[in-house]
Amino acid sequence: MLKPKIDKVVVNIGVGKSGEPLEKAVKVLRELTNQEPGKRKAKQSIRDFGTRKGEPIACIVTLRKQDAIDFLNKVLPVVDKKISRKSFDKNGSFSFGIKEHIEIQGVKYDPDVGIFGMDVCVAMIRPGYRVKNRRRKRAKIGSSHVLTPDESMVFVKDTLGVEIA
Question: What is the DSSP letter of 51?
Fold first, then answer.
């Protein structure tokens, strides 16, 4: 009951512009994850960046269950299977970045698409966490059942073979 597991993996490419660059990023995410990415809009207008409020500037994909584990096994070698202790938050979740998507094994450089970096965020949970998020009869998670960063690090080390630096 106390064994942690991966809830979801969220992959985000923040382009900063709409139009053709965003469509290329969507194409990259679609090829990497075999899912249709969703577009995220700008929260506010920033004149210096040339973005307007409500304009799509990023694309995102959420992977769950076996798809999430398969994707992590594909992208973790890019960061040499090392994750910093500082990458883990107080809930045991962690994130890391990939500077160039062409570093992922099996991905070839396409001059028409270009090169994109991405953020990979991994949310960790324990069985029983649904109590915290469900709509009816919502309840708090007891302190003995809360997932700590240390427990999450041990799980990631054992299941994914990641070295914690």
Answer: B
